[in-house]
Specification:
Layout lengths: L4 H24 L9 E3 L3 E4 L2 H12 L4 H15 L9 E8 L4 E7 L9 H8 L21 H12 L4 H4 L1 H9 L1 E2 L2 H17 L5 H5 L11 E2 L2 H13 L1 H5 L2 H13 L5 H5 L4 E3 L2 E5 L2 E5 L7 H10 L4 H4 L4 H21 L10 H4 L2 H8 L24 E6 L5 E7 L47 E5 L2 E9 L3 H14 L5 H6 L3 E4 L14 E4 L5 H9 L4 E3 L6 E8 L4 E6 L6 E4 L1
Parallel strand pairs: 15-16
Antiparallel strand pairs: 1-18, 2-10, 2-19, 3-4, 3-11, 4-7, 5-6, 8-9, 9-12, 10-11, 12-13, 13-17, 14-15, 17-18
Length: 576
Amino acid sequence: MTIRRSTLLCLLFPVLCSLLNAQIDRINGRAFATRSPVLGAHGMVCTSHPLATQAGLDILKAGGSAIDAAIAANAALGLMEPVSNGVGGDLFAIVWDAKTGKLYGLNASGRSPLGLSYEQMKAELAKTATPSHIPPRGFLPISVPGAVDGWFALHGKFGRLPMKDILAPAIRYATEGFPVTQYIAYLWGIGVRNAKADRFPGAFLDVYAPGGQAPREGEIFRNPALAHTLGLIAIQGRDAFYKGEIADQIDAFMRANGGFLRKVDFEKNAPTWVEPVSVNYRGYDVYELPPNSQGIAALQMLNILEGYDLAKMGYNSPDALHVLIEAKKLAFEDRAKFYADPGFAKIPLPGLLSKEYAAGRRKLINLARAARTYDAGNPALKDGDTIYLCTADAEGNMVSLIQSNYRGMGSGITVPGLGFTLQDRGEMFTFEPGHANVYAPGKRPFQTIIPGFVMKDGQPWEAFGVMGGAMQPQGHVQVLVNQIDFGMNVQEAGDAARWQHEGSSEPTGEKMTDGGTVQVESGIPYASTRALAQRGHVIVGGIGAFGGYQAIRWDPVNKVYWGASESRKDGQAAGY
């Protein structure tokens, strides 16, 4: 039978239109996903590196708990992604314990040196190029690493396997080597260039630039010094790090090179179990950890956004994007003023998270115009660079864990023989007298790293996180809104195009006076970005700093975990 050309075109036209519309949807970021969600009935591990994911999965298959798997994956990431995390950094976690039916929060962030007073720090800063601000690298921004204490606190409460088994994969990879992945290799190169310019004492270049340069994509990297450190921790426990050989080496190096941490700072370190705090957003209970982290900024944003019908406004519409950005600006003004170590400042937490307070703040948003500046609110005071990973096991336990060296490869200070870099989290203090986040010895600095968790009808719904400095609360809100308001699945929610507002007031003292800037990824429609510009937003092209997302959602009907790891990093979600 012969088919006329005109008839064939008529038959193909609907198909061609469908394909074209699908491509337009991909460009606009609607329901776009790099792959389908990963499903598993017995367990799930999602991290920013495939080998770390597999290390965690192996621990689950060996009978370990979700916490055991999280520690194994985190230890592997400290080796494989040193641009973001390691045992020289801090840790926060939210754990759903199926046995007790309860959420637990852990703040394992370290404190500033006890022997470095405010006046002494000011005098040291006067010798630097940034006399009013703690620099991002060197000895001054180093605070006590809390991650190892966090591992043992979590393991003591929820672990099953011995720590020597949990750390074995990371030790093996540190000894035998592993191939460096693409995105990590790019960031690693930046870290090594910074270190060569800094020329700090220590072993940074010896460890991270073997042969004089950063390892390239696909090259095998080994870190025998870190293998030795992890081996001590595996056998001797947390005391090896905080009371024994490792603390002694750090103390001796600091004394010899003008640093400020001492063994007593390590001996007095301890993590803190905290109650996660929450707000209800359209029937979903969203949990974050209280300050000194910035998690409640996401909750404040959600409270403000609840007053708008985002679904009716439309995904990536000018109206929806505008109110999301303005809600971020409002929450970040409170973040700049109130978020700090609760051991040193009274934080008006109930007021900040109240629906009444959010309603008052919402009234400040002009739907037709972007604000150039906002003031922090006056809530009632009542007494009373980073990796993210998540894991889940066959018993229903779920872990949301985030860990960081802060900027890039941390302070750039690596003690010889230990194989890891010390964090630079102390940069986040301010020197404004009377400010909640003002520097003091023995104080936890303001923290950007935040794990997230969502409950629905009293049951776990999702462990999730978006790593990346000030992007994190913005990212948390975007991936939740994508799922709750716009109906995306757990993978689509992370792959969808993002925006990031920069230039808000900061806990370090900076004040927003010009409205800041909005970075947008290419998937956000030009019509929407043009409309935002017409409302007064300053739009700039995206430069890649949109965070990195992992999530595990629980399906209580089919008893299945849904895992996701987005395409912006080198990660993997895997289940079994």
